[in-house]
Specification:
The complex is a heterodimer of chains A (611) and B (351). Chain A is α/β, with parallel strands linked by helices and 611 residues long. Chain A contains 19 helices and 23 strands. Chain A folds into 4 domains: 193 residues, 3-Layer(aba) Sandwich (Pyruvate-ferredoxin Oxidoreductase, domain 3), CATH 3.40.920.10; 183 residues, Rossmann fold, CATH 3.40.50.970; 77 residues, no CATH class; 115 residues, Rossmann fold. In chain A, the strands form 5 sheets. Chain A has a 7-stranded mixed β-sheet, sandwiched between helices. In chain A, helix 1 packs across helix 5, helix 4 crosses helix 6 and helix 7 packs parallel to helix 12. The longest helix of chain A has 21 residues. With 351 residues, chain B is α/β, with parallel strands linked by helices. In chain B, strand 7, helix 7 and strand 8 form a beta-alpha-beta unit. The chains are: A alpha/beta (611), B alpha/beta (351). The interface between A and B is large, with 78 and 63 residues.
């Protein structure tokens, strides 16, 4: 039986890298959105530039499940290299859309799916003579064909094309023409619409559709970052690129045409973090964007910033490690390497945004936290959030907000006779005052160093001042627990002995999985951790439950390790649920892992022997 | 131990500079280096240069890496902020600091291990970016703190104190700086204060990447026969191309120099460099000629010193980045945050 579904199915486009398919595919996703139906698209791409396979998957989901679903209901197979695997991956009863210009042997198909051939190359070749045009418009032709097959509102697509090309009427008309070439072919020659359909709805609301890297970069603009030093690395490069384009639009002085920002592409990640630390030491808000291998290179400097107490913001867009790992695949695998980055006793705050909205919020907030705590702060994105468009709540900004520059002593403070000790804990929160270089002719200067020193920044190798300083740093870390974003708890409507802890990009899959589990009679209280160090409510949540699942996207249960390490919890009560094959975690995976475990727990216990 | 503040009292008749500061106001804490170390002479020259230029001490930021040379910023400019960073990475920290506040003077102090070995890359990139700074390498060809290993500036064939011969080619930081586009390049000798002080002053006033390689013999590990970085060797082979008088914008030129022997270089800030030529045909504005001369004299076993190259109208990183005149660290939310109305527009464009 062919699959039948309205507003709830998955289409995957199999393309050749560099063929110009990306914009047509994104146009498809946006068109569905314009029809009021939520979508969640994902790029699946190998680490190459041109000529190799790339996929784009669109989950159409009226219920708003934005995690990856798993399984493919319709394959748009445009890449002969991956044909066999692509055809094999279609769900039974699904649909295969392909370019039927060249006849394919029957053995290349399956008989449990519906095969839809449209002679795309033939249509394009008939219509266009320029090879580049043939290629580009072929993408629009298949979009037109799909619009008829899936019963989509062609006006929505036309509207988007009009917006995209603004006043370039010629381009608008030629795209319309290609769109209708595909649409007309289906209308005249094929049975349509098929069992999968998009129907207008009103489930999108005022939400925006944006990539996490772009959102985080915008957060840095709003958060007041004026210095960015970075080194290109997938999947974080688009964050620095986005910061550059946001700044060009939003941070150029209208009168002088001069820049209220400085962006340097450094020679490596060591130099990137070095520049960030130098700029922040000197009182500017500065950040770098990187991924796991970059963090490894930065660790010596991160220890310096921790020990010398210099603010820094590091956006880590995580990818699958170790080593070069899978540069274009997603994971949450740098928690431990960031939490304890560098030699000696070190600990660093981390923020875990779930989507672009939080990437923006936390991106801006991280600069306040870094200044307040005078320490490096990590914003932990991953490829799944960073490099995919995600439907999310609109960005918000309060114009009355002033930046929290933390404890900075001014020339006036110094003249008023305030006692300045760079590493003196005057307020009991472990956070000392600092001065910016150049503050006062005779007061407040000090020497910043990675070697040990006393409360007045004087070099010393004596044990007691060293211990005093290290313990103050721990007090500061305690202070951080109440400053970083708090965990969000959602209790099940039925009392339960089981809980689940999750974070970051796992959130939409986890939300959906909770629904699936509930339908099976498994109730879970949920806690979404949003930062490290952990707020005391993480301890409370765990003590409220017999067992707590910890769902994460790495092999070694890194969040669970951090909880065990920092919260003094019996590890036996924390059950790991781990997904780490480089694809985004799915609700199906979580629900199955959790229900298997819960079903096992439900096995009637052995009757206790009577005493 | 190792932190010893110098007593502040001084003779009441000690001369004062234009800001009313004495020489003592530019000092730091007591040096912990070996007695006779060349680095201490460089420290003295830095103090002298800043005093003579009447620089407000707190408007200077001094940054260094790790090593004997990188310890020296503790010994000068006690009223300046200092930053002893990590080994070989001073250039990136200085670059970041410079981006944050273009109004301070940045003094980067490094050594041959710090800049030619572990930090060779950062040295090169800071120079090629044209960061407005004075980058001083206190060059002794040896690792002092770890007791006498060769560094990357040790000449091939030179001997260590333990009798080992260095087989590796040496890195000539002056040649590299020249090739990478430094707009002020000089070499001097810690034992020649008369040459060194004006060079430091000129470098500070230079508004671009100024590089100073200062041969600074290590009395503990590299001052023996067979070393090419010893006091005796450098004195015997010192081939100075010029002597420099630094003339600040406030001073009138007091002396009439004999024509043909002296070249006046106007710097961007109005200061003037009076160069008394010692090598008659040496052109201080020709990068190519300078590099040729360096190679020739080096092949002859000579150590070329003096102001080797200067670009009178240099550009710096801030110019390339077109940054605003106000230091970036003074900008606040009203200048940096585009505001909620702009954000609403962005939201609308993402639907």
């Amino acid at each position: 039986m062919p699959l039948e579904s309205v507003n709830d199915f998955v289409v995957r486009f199999a393309n050749v890298n560099g063929s110009g398919s990306a914009s047509a595919n994104e146009l498809f996703a946006r068109s569905v959105l314009r029809m009021g139906v939520p979508v969640s698209p994902r790029n699946i791409f190998p680490s190459n530039i041109q000529g190799l396979p790339t996929w784009y998957e669109v989950r159409i989901t009226e219920d708003g499940h934005l995690g990856a679903r798993g399984g493919i209901d319709m394959m748009v197979a445009m890449n002969p290299q991956t044909w066999d695997k692509d055809v094999a991956s279609i769900e039974p009863g699904g649909y295969l859309f392909y370019d039927s210009t060249k006849p394919m042997p029957a053995s290349k198909f399956r008989d449990d799916i519906t095969v839809i051939g449209v002679p795309l190359t033939a249509i394009a070749n008939r219509e266009y003579t320029d090879p580049r045009q043939r290629q580009l418009f072929k993408n629009i032709i298949y979009l037109g064909a799909l619009s008829a097959l899936l019963d989509m509102d062609v006006k929505a697509i036309e509207q988007l094309i009009t917006e995209q090309f603004k006043s370039k009427e010629k381009l608008i008309q030629s795209n319309f023409h290609a769109l209708h070439l595909g649409r007309d072919y289906v209308t005249l020659n094929l049975e349509h619409p098929i069992g999968l359909r998009v129907r207008k709805s009103d489930k999108v609301g005022d939400r925006i559709f944006v990539e996490g890297n772009s959102a985080a970069a915008l957060g840095a603009v709003y958060g007041g970052a004026s210095v960015c030093a970075w080194y290109p690395i997938t999947p974080s490069s688009s964050l620095a690129d986005a910061f550059t384009s946001h700044c060009r639009r939003l941070r150029v002085d209208p009168e002088t045409k001069q820049n209220k920002f400085a962006i340097v592409q450094a020679e490596d990640e060591l130099a990137s973090i070095g520049m960030v630390i130098g700029a922040a030491w000197n009182g500017a808000r500065a950040f770098t964007a990187t991924s796991g291998p970059g963090i490894s290179l930065m660790t010596e400097f991160l220890g310096l910033a921790y020990f010398a107490e210099i603010p820094a913001v590091v956006f880590n867009v995580q990818r699958a490690g170790p080593s070069t790992g899978m540069p274009t695949r997603t994971q949450q695998c740098d928690l431990i390497s960031c939490a304890y980055a560098s030699h000696g006793d070190t600990k660093h705050p981390m923020l875990f945004p779930e989507d672009p909205t939080e990437a923006f919020e936390f991106g801006a907030q991280s600069f306040d936290l870094a200044d307040r705590l005078q320490t490096p702060v990590f914003v932990m994105l991953d490829l799944d959030i960073g490099m995919n468009h995600r439907l999310c709540k609109p960005f918000k900004w309060d114009d009355s907000k002033q930046y929290d520059r933390g404890k900075v002593m001014t020339a006036a403070d110094l003249d008023a006779g305030k006692d300045f000790g760079r590493y003196l804990d005057v307020d009991g929160d472990g956070i000392p005052f600092r001065t910016y270089p150049g503050t006062h002719p005779t007061k407040g200067s000090f020497f910043t160093r990675g070697t040990s020193r006393d409360r007045y920044a004087r070099y010393t190798e004596e044990g007691p001042p060293y211990v005093d300083n290290m313990q103050r740093l721990l007090r500061k870390f305690e202070t951080a627990k109440d400053l970083v974003p708090k965990p969000l708890r959602a209790n099940s409507d039925k009392a339960t002995r089981f809980g689940v802890i999750y974070f970051g990009s796992t959130a939409p899959a986890m939300d959906e999985a909770a629904g699936l589990l509930k339908a099976q009679g498994h109730h879970l209280d949920m806690l979404r951790v949003r930062a490290f160090p952990f707020h005391h409510s993480v301890d409370d949540f765990i003590s409220d439950h017999d067992f707590v699942f910890v769902v994460e996207q790495n092999r070694d249960a890194q969040l669970r390790s951090l909880i065990v390490n920092e919260c003094a919890i019996d590890p036996a009560r924390l059950v790991p649920v781990l997904h780490f094959d480089g694809t985004p975690i799915t609700a199906r995976f979580i629900a199955s892992a959790v229900s298997n475990r819960l079903d096992a727990l439900k096995v009637t216990p052995l009757r206790k022997e009577r005493a | 131990m190792t932190y010893l503040a110098k007593p502040k009292f001084h003779h009441p008749a000690l001369p004062k500079n234009a800001l009313g500061f004495t020489h003592r106001d530019y000092e730091g804490s007591v040096s912990t280096l070996c007695a006779g170390c060349g680095h201490d002479s460089i420290t003295a020259a830095v103090i002298e240069a800043c005093y003579e230029l009447s620089l407000p001490p707190h408007r200077i930021a001094k940054l260094s890496g790790i090593g004997c040379s990188s310890k020296t910023p503790t010994y000068f400019l006690g009223n300046s902020h200092g930053f002893n960073t990590v080994h070989g990475r001073m250039p990136s920290v200085l670059t970041g600091a410079n981006l944050a506040n273009r109004d301070l003077i940045y003094l980067g102090v490094s050594g041959d291990g710090d800049s030619a070995s572990i930090g060779f890359g950062q040295f090169a990139h800071a120079i090629r970016r044209g960061v407005n700074m004075v980058y001083i390498v206190e060059n002794n060809g040896v690792y002092g703190l770890t007791k006498g290993q060769f560094s990357a500036t040790a000449d091939r064939g030179s001997k260590s104190k333990r009798g080992l011969t260095n087989n590796d080619s040496s890195i000539d930081l002056v040649a590299v700086a020249m090739q990478l586009g430094a707009t002020f390049v000089a070499r001097s000798f810690s034992g020649d204060k008369g040459q060194l002080v004006p060079l430091i002053k000129a470098a500070i006033e230079h508004e671009g990447a100024a590089f100073l390689d200062v041969l600074s013999p290590c009395v503990a590990f590299n001052n023996h026969a067979g070393s090419t970085k010893s006091f005796d060797y450098v004195r015997e082979h010192n081939d100075a191309v010029n002597r420099l008088d630094f003339i600040s914008p406030r001073d009138a030129i007091k002396v009439d120099y004999e024509p043909g022997t002296t070249q006046i270089v106007e710097q961007h800030d109005g200061s003037r460099l009076a160069l008394h030529k010692l090598a008659p045909d040496y052109d201080v504005h020709s990068r190519i000629a300078a590099m040729n001369y360096l190679m020739e004299r080096q092949a002859a076993g000579e150590v070329v010193t003096g102001l080797l190259y200067v670009e009178p109208d240099p550009e710096d990183l801030h110019k390339h980045l077109n940054t605003v005149k106000a230091p970036l660290n003074t900008l606040e939310a009203k200048e940096l945050s585009p505001g909620s109305a702009a954000l609403e527009k962005i939201n609308a464009s993402l639907r």
